[in-house]
Fold:
Amino acid sequence: MTGNKNKRGDRGSTEEETNAAKRPNKELISQEEVGGNMADNDEVCDAEPTLHDIRNMLEDLQKSVSSILKENAILREDLTQLKSSLQSKEREVSALKTSFGKVTKADELLKTELEKTKLKLREQEDETENLYTALDELEQYTRKNSLEIQGIPDQCYSTTEEVVLKLAGVLNVNVNPTDIEISHKLKRRGNNSTRLCLNS
Structure:
């Protein structure tokens, strides 16, 4: 049996030999796979940017950042101007409000004064009307003994007393020269009148 084993060992392979023979194949396959992966990795490495590309990208970024900073500075300046303008407008509005308040107050005072003036004017008008009435009554009282004669031509008499006495004679009224207090002519437009006052 021992000789058969040896012979079998010489002619064929044992399990150990088979396993040993298989191992190099597996190692070979794994090396090929690894080699293939390495080749793929080399391709990936070839696709990565170079230092020159990175420098260009950084320069582009710097330009973009610089441009953004400039725009930001302009916007900041515009914002500062807008704030200043807004503050100025707020001051103007505040001044206008103050002025409007003063004007409104002055307007209210003027309205109050106007109402007082109107009231005073109405009182004065009433007083003036009362004075006119009183004056008219006074004139009527002072003229209660007065007589006005109209329509007598100037050439018909030499004195106003003569006119009165002649007219009284025509009317059959007893009038003596002592009854006449005063008589005089009244000059009116287009009309000569003789006015006389009789003693009461």
User: Anything to note?
Assistant: The mean pLDDT is 76. The first strand starts at residue 146 and ends at 150. The beta strands are 146-150, 180-188, 191-198.
